[in-house]
Automatic annotation (TrEMBL):
Belongs to the acyl-CoA dehydrogenase family. The lineage of its organism: Bacteria, Bacillati, Actinomycetota, Actinomycetes, Pseudonocardiales. Pfam families: Acyl-CoA_dh_1, Acyl-CoA_dh_M, Acyl-CoA_dh_N. PANTHER family: MEDIUM-CHAIN SPECIFIC ACYL-COA DEHYDROGENASE, MITOCHONDRIAL (PTHR48083:SF2), MEDIUM-CHAIN SPECIFIC ACYL-COA DEHYDROGENASE, MITOCHONDRIAL-RELATED (PTHR48083). Residues 136-227 form the Acyl-CoA oxidase/dehydrogenase middle domain. The keyword DNA damage does not apply. One of its GO terms (molecular function) is acyl-CoA dehydrogenase activity. This is Acyl-CoA dehydrogenase. GO terms for cellular component: cytoplasm. Residues 19-132 form the Acyl-CoA dehydrogenase/oxidase N-terminal domain. Keywords: FAD, Flavoprotein, Oxidoreductase.
Amino acid sequence: MIFDLTPGYDELPGIKPVVEKLRDYLRGELADYERAHDLGPETVFDRSVLQPVWKRSRELGFYGIHLPPEHGGRGLSHTELAALKEEVGASGRTLYHSVLGDMGGPLRAGAIFAYATPEQLDRYLVPVVEGDRACCFSLTETDAGSDVRAMRTTATPDGDGWRITGRKVFSSAGPFADFSILVARMAGTEETYSAFLVDLDSPGCTVLPGEVPLSGQHIESDIVLDDCYVGPGQLLGEIGDGLRIGLGRVTTNRLLHCPTVLGHARRVLELTIAHAKNRAVFGGTLADLQSIQHKIADMATAFYAARSMTYAALTALDEGRRPSTEAFMCKLFVAENAFTIADAGMQIHGKAGMVKGSEIEWLFRRLRMFRILTGSSEIQKNGIAKALLR
């Protein structure tokens, strides 16, 4: 893999035209849309702002592009999808998460297409692909994060269906979702978990504003269930499939979170290089100073290493291998080095980079979060060590 801040993707010839079309959309039409609506990363979005982006991205062929043709996509490889995720992450767009369907769309639905019945496909998933409905995923609880088996949300049998009671937190896309892919423990058991498709307007289901994360994005909800009834047609897969559905694609998901973060890190590099070239100091520019040159060299080298190992692992996945240890390594290395890049970028920007409203300041906060999100760096180290020492 050749280093380039604007990758040509010569190794992925099938996706090159899509990348160019995507870049044009991100720089042009979507940028204009965000300016017209005065959108920033900490804007409180409502459905009326987001849905036109879902629908337009669908018209252009981006929304759900990773899905197989029978579900309206192009059946992309993991590596091809990663390239597109990197591009949206590097775009600097506020609504980067809505173009491919990360936030409430087909990417959020993930692997549940494989478990859904024809009726569930028609009722829930096809409308998501079309941009008519949105979903969230509800697994985490206040005392059940990395230790998901500590969850206390419970599904109790009631006739052919179940009554669900409990509280889920950090349901990303919850503020504008129509339904949740929700995992609950089956009443009377300690180790049996099932997944349900829960309509968020159901009696007994309340969507509350979630905690606002460090990034300032208003994208989280708490899902509170109080004797909320779900029918037999809302059970996803079989009873006991809950953790398999919730965690079954963990290696793939862990790897596919990395390209978006790499895109953010790439954006930091681009902004920092431009700033160094244009910032006048001591009769020259920041870029003339060897100390700044060395920092930028370190940032670029860390980015290249993180990007290379991520795409190597994705290539292995596409070849039918299971790079589970490598996925832990990629998540760890990308998270730690992306934040190091952001920290160096802020240092080079100086005061201009640390003020609220600076893009560098927002990227710094966003990349700090990734050291915890989708499994903390310590969890990744546990996985690596376990694989090596077993």
